[in-house]
Specification:
The complex is a heterotrimer of chains A (351), B (262) and C (158). Chain A has 351 residues and is α+β, with helices and mostly antiparallel strands. Chain A has ten helices and twelve strands. Chain A has one domain. Chain A has an eight-stranded mixed beta sheet with strand order 3-2-6-7-8-9-1-10. The two termini of chain A are 31 Å apart. Chain B is of the alpha/beta class and 262 residues long. Chain B folds into two domains: 120 residues, no CATH class; 123 residues, no CATH class. In chain B, helix 4 packs across helix 5. The longest helix of chain B has 16 residues. Chain B is globular and about 60 Å long. Chain C has a single domain, classed as 3-Layer(aba) Sandwich (Rossmann fold), CATH 3.40.50. Chain C is built from six helices and four strands, in the order βαβαβαβααα. The chains are: A alpha+beta (351), B alpha/beta (262), C alpha/beta (158). Chains B and C meet through helix 6, helix 7, helix 9 and helix 11 of B and helix 2, helix 3, strand 4 and helix 5 of C.
Chain lengths: 351, 262, 158
């Protein structure tokens, strides 16, 4: 499949030798930015804030967790309060000045695209302040995929292993010695300028296509969406979710899942914090009412909600899909709920 | 394989069971399959690679409530089934257990007594890896152990896969879901993650089948099953093998020995 | 001002034996360390293991858990159940690297006023030697801090 470069005023692409990449990142880091990058520990690769650029791992196919924590941390304090006498409450509001400038390095195109999904949710109606403030301070340096595995299905949901959608800079390993550098946004350009002398002009005629993983298209997402929307009462939800054990692994590793819970860290004597933490529509408690009634009382209803939300409701209302085909949910699932496989089953459904 | 499929189809056909909890080939490894029809039963597989603990499905009310269920059970799943029966979570006659003989043959266990008999005769699959891990941790000085566990558990994002995968975690309302009092803070943070694991294994003490499903389920690969394994070991050392008469912490022996109470 | 470390000790005791024993310590005018705060429970069987953790999280440097001697339980067997729980719990804490020297378990009857004073004095001395229990509090105070603390959570530990 022909992958077009996203039009950018910073065309044509540049080139950076592998040997200079870490030197550039070190400069970015010395500039005071926090760098989140994939780090391998005990055989699992994950995004971490790195102390030294030498820790960064580039050998993985996919990190266990997505990079969304950089803009949507798993636990975040929204504000604090301290109670005084007679209801005079001292409020300490959310302070965006505490948020550091951050670079997320080494995320794949599926993850970069998912930042658009998150933005869609957090900007629907009112802008979510903590998310918005973090997004203003984050630069995404993507890396195209040279390898994929059986769980990857980005090409089936409109993505591509070399897509620059969502990234500020996209690197593509061309050969063993260096990366083709596509600069997409002003923010990306600003980052490149931290070590402008390390970048070279890309050789004429160099193409990234041949260096990309081939990810077969597994299903027509339009067809799946159409059939899914028309099968709310179908038995398929029950059949697919029969083995689902109702944990939140899929939602928590998902780069586009944005559900959260609001909790109170009450410390007694009137003081406390208001906390936001990740939540999952797969949990039975997610929709439990105070009355005891639960509108989604069984797992099949929760599974249905998860899929419809990602593939129907979000495209309908936010013009962005809630799935970018990273395949993490399928890798993380304790009972192998393979999403691509299940979506394909909808394609075959007669509605 | 064919023997299992035809047997399951026969049982489904004669309504001796309403559904069968078994394994099918998954993306990479065998995965659970809930078969309710002959068509689905044709996808069943069962061999020594099928180690996941399927007993977790037996207590899921929306799936198995009031139904007669057949199940393909690994050694540790049988332990869970035995305990679930002891804890009155399953009823005699409602579960048909299929086990594997050492040479890979099929073995049908109809009654609880048969399951318990099988557990006595069959040898437990090795826990050498877990034993070594426990030893490695015990050899650390306490401060290093604390650093190790807080380091590992700080990564936990509280998806509760360890809970969901555990056959003994069948409470309809878990301690982490009550907020009066809120024993364990519901957000992911080092301390509340550690406290969650402490609570989990304390509630499992003497009930845990030591199957390792909690660790296998963790999407972040945290060694939470090692804590459970250590607990199982401690329970055995201090109180012997579990009996049918209530679990370890709801029973006692006036002669229980300790060396730390003044 | 005295800047020497004064341990904070929380004692979970049963109503029928140790609480009465501690009462006797007082009425016998036996002096003992004032570092201890006593929380009264109906029975040691009622003392949830989480309470011990909460004590550490909220600033205790040491904990005492005390009740009736075996066979003396007001409810016949509460202390037997508690003993089992402590055997397991203590082993678990030790495995996780929590310093079990900060937890003193004891049997103190209603007649053992002098023993209660000894238990408290010994625990205070032991914990004083160990110093403040900052490790547990540090882990517990995760959200008390600011952005930096949050980011540290996700940092790679070398």
């Amino acid at each position: 499949m022909e992958q077009k470069y996203i039009p950018s005023k910073y065309m044509p692409p540049k080139y950076i030798p592998k040997s200079s990449l870490k030197a550039w990142l070190a400069k970015v880091k010395d500039d005071g930015r926090h760098i989140y990058a994939p780090v391998t520990e005990n055989g699992k690769t994950n995004f971490k804030r790195v102390k030294s650029v030498d820790e960064i791992s580039m050998e993985h196919i996919q990190t266990a967790q997505s990079a969304k924590g950089a803009v949507f941390p798993r636990t975040e304090k929204l504000f604090s309060y301290a109670g005084g006498q007679q209801g005079d409450v001292a409020l300490q509001d959310y302070n965006p000045n505490d948020i550091p400038d951050t670079v997320v390095f080494g995320l794949h195109p599926c993850d970069a695209a998912a930042f658009k999904s998150l933005s869609g949710i957090f900007s629907w109606g009112a802008k979510d302040r903590p998310f918005d403030e973090r997004m203003k301070r984050v630069t995404l340096v993507g890396v195209s995929c040279g390898r994929s595995d059986v769980f990857c299905f980005c090409t089936s949901v409109g993505g591509h292993p070399g897509s620059a959608e969502g990234s500020d800079i996209l690197l593509t390993a061309v050969g063993n010695d260096g990366y083709l550098v596509e600069i997409i946004t002003d923010r990306g350009q600003a980052l490149v300028e931290k070590g402008a002398d390390l970048f070279e002009a890309a050789a004429a005629g160099v193409s990234k296509e041949e260096h990309l993983a081939s990810v077969p298209v597994r299903f027509s997402v339009e067809e799946v969406q159409r059939k899914m929307a028309g099968s709310f009462e179908d038995d398929i939800w029950k059949k697919q979710s029969a083995r689902c054990i109702g944990c939140g692994a899929c939602a928590f590793v998902c780069p586009a899942c944005a559900c959260f819970d609001i909790q109170e860290n009450a410390k007694g004597n009137g003081a406390g914090d208001r906390i936001r933490c990740w939540d999952s529509c797969g949990f039975s408690l997610f929709t439990l009412h105070t009355s005891g009634h639960n509108p989604r009382s069984v797992q099949s209803q929760r599974w249905r909600q998860r899929l419809l939300h990602k593939l129907c409701y979000m495209p309908d209302r936010l013009s962005v899909r809630g799935c970018t085909g990273c395949g993490r949910c399928s890798r993380a699932c304790p009972v192998d709920m393979n999403l691509a496989e299940h979506l394909k089953e909808f394609e075959r459904l007669k509605v | 394989m064919n023997e299992l499929r035809s047997k399951v189809k026969e049982l489904l056909g004669s309504k001796e069971i309403d559904l069968f909890v078994g394994y099918e080939q998954g993306t990479r490894l065998p995965r659970p399959l809930i078969a309710a029809s002959a068509e689905e039963a044709d996808r069943l597989i069962f061999d020594e690679n099928c180690t996941g603990n399927l007993a977790v499905y037996l207590t899921r009310r929306e799936l198995a409530g009031g139904k007669k269920v057949g199940i393909a059970a690994s050694y540790y799943a049988m332990r869970s089934i035995s305990r679930l029966l002891d804890e009155n979570q399953l009823r005699e006659g409602m579960v048909k257990v299929f086990g594997l003989t050492p040479d890979g043959g099929l073995k049908l266990l109809d009654a609880i007594a048969d399951v318990k008999q099988h557990l006595q005769e069959a040898s437990a699959p090795s826990r050498q890896v877990e034993d070594e891990w426990v030893k490695e941790i015990e050899d650390m000085p306490p401060a290093e152990r604390w650093k190790f566990w807080t380091g590992e558990l700080s990564k936990c994002f509280k998806c509760y896969a360890c809970r969901a995968a555990c056959p003994m975690c069948y409470c309809t309302k878990c301690i982490v879901e009550v907020n009066r009092p809120q024993w364990i803070q519901p957000w992911a943070a080092t301390m509340s993650n550690v406290e969650w694991q402490i609570s989990r294994v304390m509630h499992m003490a003497g009930r845990c089948a030591d199957c390792g499903a909690c660790g296998a389920a963790c999407p972040l690969g945290l060694p939470v099953h090692i804590i459970a394994h250590k607990m199982a070991e401690m329970v055995r050392q201090n109180f012997g093998e579990p009996t049918e008469k209530g679990n370890v912490l709801s029973t006692f022996n006036p002669n229980d020995e300790e060396n730390f109470i003044w | 001002m005295n800047t020497e470390f004064e341990p904070k000790i929380l004692a979970f005791v049963c109503n029928w034996c140790t609480y009465a024993g501690a009462d006797l310590t007082g009425t016998s005018r036996i002096k003992y360390a004032s570092n201890v705060k006593i929380v009264r429970f109906p029975c040691t069987g009622r003392i949830d293991f989480m309470l011990l953790l909460k004590a550490f999280a909220n600033g205790s440097d040491g904990v005492i858990v005390s009740g009736c001697h075996p066979n003396d339980c007001h409810y016949t067997s509460g202390n037997f159940h508690a003993r089992r729980r402590w055997i397991i719990f203590r082993g678990l804490l030790s495995f996780l690297g929590i310093d079990v020297r900060r937890i003193q378990f004891s049997w103190v009857s209603a007649a053992e006023g002098a023993k209660w004073a000894d238990v408290v004095n010994k625990t205070v001395a032991d914990v004083r030697a160990l110093g403040p229990y900052t490790e547990y509090r540090k882990a517990a105070e995760f959200l008390a801090g600011n952005e930096d603390v949050l980011l540290k959570e996700q940092e790679v530990t070398p």
